[in-house]
Specification:
With 609 residues, the protein is mainly alpha-helical. Helix content is 73%, strand content 0%. It has helices spanning 5-24, 26-29, 33-38, 45-56, 59-72, 87-100, 107-115, 122-155, 158-161, 174-224, 253-262, 267-283, 290-296, 301-332, 351-359, 364-400, 406-429, 431-458, 464-484, 490-510, 517-527, 534-543, 553-578, 582-602. The protein is globular and about 75 Å long.
Length: 609
């Protein structure tokens, strides 16, 4: 299906708008470093929350979700706990305000508020966080633009445009050319306008995406009206036992193969391992990426909590309207869609582009493609902004030119942005060669991230040396394990890796002196964490008898459980609407109302800076 003039016009209008956005906001962004990287910490929480949600609405993730929904049905709502998606609930209830109270610009700068500026392991812990952030950013930039290029190639074949370009392109690099073109648009507005243009651009994209997602859900309901889906028993039930219990034999046989390849047949075991990893990953706090930058950009700790709570509300119902809508179209017209993987099997991730290409009318197709294109550009620009923040704040200003003027800082931000994008694009051209290496490194970094970053919040004696050794141990362990346990899901050897990283954290901690008492007191007074902080609490209370320690652990955990249930309800709600499952829909709405009323008293009314 070729794009119509109307669809093409919508896409072009969006791209032109993004360029104008960056140009008009460039003066506002250039006021100072904080204005450029963080919007001057003056942007409203709901705008930052909508922007953060938009950044999480990416093409590849949505394609994956549609394939999961097709094969696993409503049970697929649990699988994103792999990330874990409920980390937003932990952030909402307490971690966002703890992080924001630091007044830091980046996660690496935050470390100074916890461990001080000198001492054993301080430089190493700072360096490893900067490396973590930059490798994560480059990993996305290297592959994100190629994924976008391949997606665009489905709708705009090179045969249509090749006569209008003054150069020849080998077939294997067509996706790269498309990717570079749209990357340049994203780079222009995000580098010129900084956080201001990124947030406003995300709001425009979110509005477009919302219209497109609702339209897809309505179209799916119209097609489903009067028809019956051929489904295995249990597909429409979110609950599960030890075994998954889905049998696609005689319906879509290749779906059984996908379940076997994914390794989710023993769903009960998979769920327990996922929950174990997920709780610790969520308790570690935000990773040093665009999510952390949005939290640090809020006006206050109170608004940081509101912002992260808002993310799930604006993201999940909208995104899953698209997911279930495309899934229904895929189920109804499975035999008509070309989903071959080229090797005699089925590529279920092709459902999203195939359904969009076949069933969306003129205008709606343009809106959806624009929304998905904006999804890439939003995630790209947020990631680029985070990379600039770490390069300028934690490398240039710390080691190269600490007294740089505002004009010089902005110029270096421009240069850093161009360099990061250029390196990412170059890596993308060698993706086949570096994919396994980069994935190995990124997996290792995330594997080593969790234990040390849990301990930094909740234990006073944990120091910079423990953080550094714990991260190194976890990273090295993840890299070795990924080679030793080839073909085994990372999730299943995570407990061993976690214990190894905890051991490294403890060894590092007790082979170095405790963090300076003044630093710990300042951190405890400002952040006010709960956990194992009694020695510092006693010192602070002795100096200031009016100081009230944080006794909200039980209440925060109660709110976390309620928040996770509420998050699941928001995920499953559009599914029940599109599938016309009225009784489960009513039950879900009732549960959501109860949770809202309780959290109004236990969380919203108790928010403080």
């Amino acid at each position: 299906m070729k794009l119509s003039f109307i669809d093409t016009s919508i896409i072009v209008l969006y791209l032109v708008t993004m360029v104008m956005l960056g140009w008009f906001l460039r003066k506002k962004a250039r006021l100072n470093k904080e204005s450029y990287l963080m919007g001057g910490k003056k942007l409203p929480w709901y705008m930052l929350g909508m922007s953060d949600a938009s950044d999480m609405f990416d093409i590849s993730g949505t394609m994956w979700m549609v394939s999961l929904c097709f094969v696993y049905g409503i049970k697929s709502i649990w699988i994103p706990w792999l990330w874990p998606v409920f980390n937003q609930v932990f952030n909402m209830m307490y971690l966002s305000k703890w992080l924001r109270r630091s007044n830091a610009t980046t996660g690496a700068e935050w470390l100074a508020t916890r461990f001080g500026l000198s001492g054993k392991g301080v430089k190493g812990s700072h360096s490893i966080v900067v490396a973590f952030a930059l490798i994560g950013c480059l990993g996305f930039l290297a592959y994100g633009f190629i994924g976008l290029g391949k997606f665009i190639e489905i709708f705009v074949p090179w045969e249509i445009v090749k006569d209008y370009v003054p150069f020849d392109v080998a077939p294997q690099y067509v996706a790269h050319v498309y990717g570079i073109v749209f990357t340049l648009f994203a780079m222009f507005y995000s580098i010129l306008g900084g956080m201001h243009s990124i947030v406003l651009g995300d709001l425009i994209k979110y509005a477009i995406m919302t219209i497109g997602c609702i339209a897809i859900a309505v179209i799916a309901m119209m097609h489903l009206n009067g028809n019956t889906l051929k489904l295995p028993a249990g597909w429409d039930d979110p609950f599960f036992g030890w075994h998954l219990g889905l049998d696609w034999t005689g319906i879509v046989n290749d779906a059984n193969k996908k379940i076997a390849d994914d390794g989710y047949g023993l769903f009960g075991l998979f769920f327990m391992m996922m929950l174990f990893k997920g709780v610790f990953a969520a308790a570690a706090g935000p990773a040093p990426n665009y999510d952390m930058q949005k939290i640090l950009s809020t006006k206050s700790p109170k608004e940081a909590s509101k912002m992260t709570g808002f993310v799930s509300i604006v993201l999940l119902p909208v995104r899953y309207s698209m997911v279930i809508g495309l899934t229904v179209l895929g189920l109804l017209y499975y035999d008509q869609l070309q989903l071959s993987d080229g090797n005699g099997g089925t590529d279920f991730e092709r459902i999203l582009p195939a359904a969009i290409n076949n069933f969306l009318p003129i205008g709606i197709l343009g809106l959806v493609l624009t929304g998905l294109l904006g999804a890439f550009m939003g995630t790209f620009s947020g990631t680029l902004n985070a990379a600039q923040a770490y390069l300028i704040n934690d490398v240039y200003l710390k080691y190269v030119n600490p007294t740089a003027s505002t004009k010089k800082i902005i110029s270096m931000n421009y240069l850093a942005g161009i360099v990061v994008v250029t390196v990412g694009v170059i890596l993308g051209f060698f993706a086949k060669d570096v994919n396994s290496i980069l994935q190995w490194i990124v997996s290792g970094l995330y594997g080593g991230y969790i234990a040390a970053n849990v301990l930094k919040w909740y234990w006073w004696r944990f120091n910079a040396n423990g953080f550094y050794i714990g991260m190194l141990t976890g990273v090295a362990g993840a890299m070795v394990f990924s080679r030793l346990f080839t073909g085994i899901e990372f999730l299943y050897y995570f407990p061993v890796l976690f214990l190894l990283s905890v051991a490294g954290s403890f060894i590092g901690t007790f082979t170095a002196p405790a963090t300076n008492t003044e630093t710990l007191k300042a951190f405890y007074r400002s952040v006010r964490p709960w956990g194992f902080w009694k020695p510092i609490q006693e010192i602070v209370q002795k100096e200031d008898p009016s100081f009230e320690p944080n006794r909200r652990f039980k209440l925060d955990m109660f709110n976390v459980v309620l928040g996770i249930i509420g998050q699941l309800c928001m995920t499953v709600l559009p599914m029940y609407v599109v599938l016309s499952m009225h009784l489960p829909l009513i039950i879900t709405i009732v549960i959501m109302i109860l949770i809202i009323l309780i959290l109004k008293k236990t969380w919203w009314n108790k928010l403080e800076d």
